[in-house]
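FAQ: What does the model actually see?

It sees only this:
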Amino acid sequence: MAIIRNLRKEDNTAIELVVRSCLIEFGGNRAGLAWEDASLSDLFHYYDQHQHASYWVVELDGQVVGGCGIASFGESDTLCELQKMYLLPQVRGTGIAGPLLHTALDYASQQYKQCYLETLQTMGAANRFYAKHGFKQLDEPLAGSEHYACDAWFMKDL
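And it is asked to produce this:
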């Protein structure tokens, strides 16, 4: 049975491998995407050092198989970003994505008024998942976006 828990320092390598594996699968292993984020090799430190930020992992049989994070978008006090939500193929379709997203959004709603996310159109199932959970698709990225290669953007009121 899969569990959702806070990211630990010892999860850094495992979650980096999950993110990179998913990015390769969907053609996201290129410039302008999470692939090049300096924080990817130490997500624990990244989320630990930022106020009102957190990251959760999905663990199955002792193995990290997915995760997602919440952090402020830019320097905003009212807008956060859903970040690095990725699940390995073996847990997609099992129903764990919904509780993972709700864990993140419940946390976000305590601090922020809106949640933004950026993704790729090639991640069709993820795009449908976000729409199903109340995210509205935007026509363009928000000013200040660091991931210039993303081509799908969503916003949700919290």
